[in-house]
Specification:
Helix 11 crosses helix 12. The strands form three sheets. The chain has a seven-stranded mixed sheet with strand order 3-2-1-4-9-6-10. Strands 5-11 form a two-stranded antiparallel ribbon. A two-stranded antiparallel ribbon has the order 7-8. It has one domain: Spore Coat Polysaccharide Biosynthesis Protein SpsA, Chain A. The chain has twelve helices and eleven strands. The two termini are about 35 Å apart. It is α/β, with parallel strands linked by helices and about 290 residues long. Helix 3 links the parallel strand 2 and strand 3. The radius of gyration is 18 Å and the shape is globular. InterPro entries: DUF6734.
Length: about 290
């Protein structure tokens, strides 16, 4: 199974007043680079094949400067630069849609010490976990409705039928049905483009991404009667600490530093320590760069 990384540099490298995505949300640029390095190297070690979809600036940073060992690099995301930086997840969305083989997309702040597992990898559709944080999606939907966004009928029909959002987290996403992702990506971009004239500085990009990335994916899977196989169960999400680097010694062998954890000096230093222990030459290279 091919592992996929995507890096659209526009939101990560340009400060935006309402967007906490500058330097990927990390406390300092060096931790942003260390995260990409540790993520690439850890997945490369266990899967061998890892592709990067990025833009010219992203290639300059991750390939030419950091010399990360991606199996393949596709420089295509400059085509997204007419979109505002609030739409930080569209680099991922675009990357899903151009795949011609089974893949698993992982975020650049996720690290592993073992394979995800054949029981998941052999699935048509894969996602991180079933996301039961319904209030986030309710707030997201209200946020875009207040801005008079036009919603596709199939989204409204799905909510009318189930009375809840029933979504999956895209922290890990992919599967063997790569043709599904082509249609999903196109429909999501059609939705974004239809409302692009309504997007301004007060749009919460993270809330919008919950709809066009995660809710779209989940509704389209239901519409096509395709099962989403989750990497982690609801119980595991509740009980396990996915930000603990002690996980490398446990059964899940996976860490994902989400949201505010990336601004914590404690977690930044723990991540840096892993890079020093496992890939010291890359740590040295980053320190010399920043």
């Amino acid at each position: 199974m091919k592992i996929l990384h995507s890096f659209w540099s526009k939101p990560a490298l340009n400060k935006y007043i309402n967007l906490d995505k500058f330097d990927g949300g990390w406390r300092h640029p060096k931790y942003h680079l260390m995260s990409w390095a540790l993520s690439c190297l850890s997945f490369k070690k266990h899967y061998g094949k890892i592709e990067l979809v990025t833009d010219i600036e992203g290639k300059s940073i991750l390939i030419e400067k950091l010399k990360l060992p991606y199996s393949n690099v596709r420089v295509e995301l400059d085509s997204l630069n007419h979109y505002p930086p609030q739409l930080w997840a569209i680099g991922k969305l675009y990357s899903y849609g151009i795949q011609e083989e089974p893949f698993i997309h992982v975020d650049g702040d996720a690290f592993i010490w073992g394979k995800i597992g054949a029981n998941v990898e052999n699935s048509e559709l894969i996602a991180h976990h079933a996301d039961d944080a319904e209030y986030h999606y309710f707030n997201a939907m209200e946020h875009i409705k207040e801005r008079n966004f036009r919603l596709p009928q199939f989204l409204m029909d799905d909510f009318k039928r189930y009375k809840k959002f029933n979504t999956s987290s895209a922290g890990i996403i992919g599967g063997n049905n790569f043709k599904f992702f082509k249609e999903y990506s196109k429909k999501a971009f059609d939705f974004i483009d239809a409302n692009l004239h309504l997007i301004n500085g007060d749009l919460n990009g993270t809330w919008f991404a919950l709809i066009y990335e995660q809710y779209f994916f989940s509704v389209m899977a239901r519409e096509k009667h395709l099962k989403i196989n989750h990497v982690f169960t609801t119980d595991e999400i509740t009980k396990l600490n996915f930000v603990s680097f002690l996980n490398k010694y446990g059964p899940i062998k996976y860490v994902h530093l989400l949201a505010h954890m990336k601004s914590s000096i404690e977690y930044c230093r723990r991540m840096e320590l892993q890079l020093i222990l496992e890939y010291p030459e890359y740590h040295k290279r980053i320190i010399e760069l920043v």
